[in-house]
Amino acid sequence: MKNFIIALDGPAGSGKSTIAKIISKRMNLTYLDTGAMYRMVALYVKENRIDDYSAIETHFNNIDMDIVGERFFLNGRDVSEEIRTPEVTKIVSPISAIKCVREKLVKRQREISEGKSVILDGRDIGTVVFPNADLKIFLVASSEERAKRRLEEYQKKGIAQNFSDVLADIKQRDYIDMTRKESPLKKADDAIEIDTTKLSIDEVVDNILDLINRKVGE
Ligand code: CDP
User: Fold this and answer.
1) Which one, of 97, 94, 101, 93, lies nearest residue 57 by Cα?
2) Which of 72, 96, 187 to mutate to test the pocket of ligand 1 (most atoms within 8 A of CB)?
3) 15 lines ligand 1 (CB under 6 A)
4) Comparing C-alpha atoms, which of 98, 86, 102, 87 is closest to residue 35?
5) CA-CA distance, 35 to 37, in Å (whole number)?
6) Angle at the Cα of 47 (from 57 to 80), degrees rounded to 5?
7) Is 126 touching ligand 1 by the criterion CB < 6 Å?
8) What pLDDT digit, counting tens, does each position of 87-109 carry?
9) Distance between CA atoms of 202 and 113, rounded to whole angstroms?
């Protein structure tokens, strides 16, 4: 079978990474969490106190990213947990809106995917990174449900947060991601939308596995 590319896009907390991990294991695909790459740039910006985001490009040579399985390394350091903190989450969307950041990461995402069957999750996979993807899925859910899921994730990690702050962050990120000039978050015309608000993880996975099998059979 030829290399198969699945683009899984959608807003924060719609379930992309949970679903992508399961699908990648079931179908033996490489999984690329593109949001983690934007989060690594955001962590670098935070740690190096770069206040002027327009200067980010001058720092690119000092940002070395490595992905090994599900672990993320920034300049050789495992930052898999740090990139998920509320502090990084707060600054990631404005940084992701910067053109040179997107160009650098999109290039890297294409390189990583070269010659492989891959499921990528993000905001612009079906529209920009792989407009010819074999299958495009757009996951959505109500903002309240997405905030509830994100709060549960924080609670499991022992990070203290409250529902209204998490909901406000999600709405703020949705707004920035959807209205930015460079590759805004939007459903590709040929993407299949799945509303996960009332669905279990298994139901979403089964739904997508069905779609994959149908595509492969075409
Ligand atoms: O997991 P969550 O949905 O909270 O976010 P994420 O997928 O880790 O992405 C974090 C942020 O990175 C998003 O809010 C976007 O601003 C940005 N992002 C992007 O611009 N393009 C992508 N392909 C992936 C993420």
Assistant:
1) 101
2) 96
3) no
4) 102
5) 5
6) 95
7) no
8) 999 999 999 999 999 999 999 99
9) 26
Pocket test for ligand 1, best of 6, 32, 34 (most atoms within 8 A of CB): 34
- What residue has token string 């379930």? 15
Token pair of 134 as six digits: 């074999």
pLDDT at position 218 is: 78
In angstroms, the CA 25 to CA 19 distance is 10
Q: Which two tokens stand for residue 109?
A: 């995402």
Q: Is 9:124 a contact under the CB 8 Å cutoff?
A: yes
**Whole-number mean pLDDT of the chain?**
95
* Cα gap 133→110, rounded to integer Å: 12
Say which DSSP state 29 is in: -
The residue written with tokens 């992309």 in the block is 16
How far is residue 142 CA from its own chain's centroid? 18
